[in-house]
Design goal:
The protein is of the alpha+beta class and 278 residues long. The protein folds into two domains: 178 residues; 71 residues, no CATH class. 22% of the residues lie in helices and 31% in strands. It contains seven helices and twelve strands. Strands 1, 2, 3, 10, 11 and 12 form a six-stranded mixed beta sheet that branches. Strands 4-5-6-7 form a four-stranded antiparallel beta sheet. The chain is elongated. 31% of the residues are buried.
C-alpha cells in the first residue's frame, strides 16, 4: 500500500509532496528525542515525531529555549512524503485508506440508553459532555421564528449547540436522539481554536483534524503517527511559528517527521547563546 501511495505522489496524483534536502532540529538534548511529544498535548501541537526546519537559526532558537546551552542536529532528508497539516484537505486516496480501517467512525457513535429517556424531563444527558433537550413550538411560536410547528430537539456539547431538528412529533424525539451520531467533540484539534466540533462532514477538511481524531481513537499520538506512516505519509508540514525575526514559508518548516528511516547523516553540535544570529 505504501508503494502505491509513493507512486501516486511521484506522478502528482495526490495533494501531498515529496521533499529532500538538509534540515535542522534544535533540542536541549544531545540525542534526538523522538518520544518528547508522547501524549503531552502541550508539547504535541503537531503530533508525535521530530520537528525540523530548513532554518538553522530557528533550530538554534529551539535548542536554547530552556537553557543557555543546547544541541543543533543537522540531517539530510531523502524523498520524504509530507502533507500540509492545516491548509489542505486530505486527499481522496488517503481518505479511502483511512475509512477502510475497521470501525473508523466509532468515536461518532452515540450510545443512548432508551430506558434512561423520560419525555417529561425535556432533557437527556449522555455522559459528562453531551446534552439533548426538546421543546414544543406551537403555531404562534413557530410562525414568529419561521419554523415548522412541532417539537424541536437540540444537541449540545459542553453547553455549545451543535445541531437542532424541528417539526417532530412527540414519538420521534427518542429516535432523533438515537440517530444523532455524527458529531465528535475535542478541544485538542486546533491549538488556535479552543473548541472544535468534528463531524463526518468536516473530518477530512484538514490533516490536523483526522490526525487528532485518530490519536483519540487509538489513545496515543505515537500510534496515530505510526498509522499515517503505514499508509505512506512520512510527516506533515506547516508554516513556521517561531520568533518574529524569522521569515519562514510552509516549505521551510516540517513540523512532524514520523518515519525515522528518512533521516540520513545526522550530525550533532553543541550551541550556546553566542550562536544565535541576532
Amino acid at each position: 500500500m505504501k508503494e502505491v501511495i509513493r507512486k501516486l505522489l511521484r506522478e502528482g496524483l495526490l495533494d501531498e509532496e515529496i521533499v529532500s534536502g538538509k534540515y535542522y532540529h534544535g533540542s536541549p538534548y544531545p540525542k534526538i528525542e523522538w518520544g518528547l511529544a508522547t501524549e503531552d498535548y502541550d508539547r504535541a501541537l503537531f503530533g508525535y515525531g521530530i520537528y525540523v526546519t530548513t532554518s538553522k537559526e530557528e533550530a538554534i532558537d529551539y535548542a536554547l529555549e530552556r537553557n543557555k546551552e543546547g544541541y543543533l542536529h543537522s540531517m539530510n532528508i531523502k524523498e520524504l512524503n509530507i502533507a500540509e497539516f492545516d491548509d489542505e484537505p486530505v486527499s481522496e486516496e488517503i481518505r479511502q485508506r483511512l475509512e477502510s480501517i475497521p470501525n473508523f467512525y466509532s468515536l461518532f457513535q452515540v450510545k443512548v440508553d432508551p430506558n434512561q429517556y423520560d419525555y417529561e424531563d425535556f432533557e437527556y444527558r449522555l455522559g459528562k459532555h453531551i446534552t439533548y433537550d426538546w421543546d414544543f413550538f406551537d403555531e404562534e411560536t413557530a410562525k414568529n421564528n419561521n419554523l415548522p410547528i412541532g417539537f424541536a430537539v437540540a444537541k449540545y456539547i459542553d453547553g455549545k449547540i451543535i445541531d437542532e431538528v424541528h417539526g417532530l412529533n412527540k414519538d420521534e424525539i427518542l429516535q432523533t436522539i438515537i440517530n444523532y451520531n455524527d458529531s465528535y467533540y475535542s478541544n485538542q484539534l486546533d491549538y488556535e481554536e479552543a473548541d472544535i466540533v468534528l463531524s463526518k462532514n468536516n473530518m477530512f477538511d484538514k490533516y490536523r483534524y483526522v490526525y487528532f481524531y485518530m490519536s483519540k481513537k487509538l489513545n496515543s499520538f505515537k500510534e496515530a503517527s505510526k498509522l499515517f506512516a503505514s499508509i505512506g505519509i512520512d510527516g506533515f508540514k506547516a508554516e513556521g511559528f517561531g520568533g518574529d525575526w524569522f521569515s519562514l514559508s510552509p516549505n521551510d518548516y516540517i513540523v512532524n517527521i514520523i518515519n525515522p528511516s528518512k533521516l540520513k547523516n545526522i550530525r550533532t553540535k553543541k550551541v550556546t547563546t553566542q550562536d544565535r544570529g541576532f
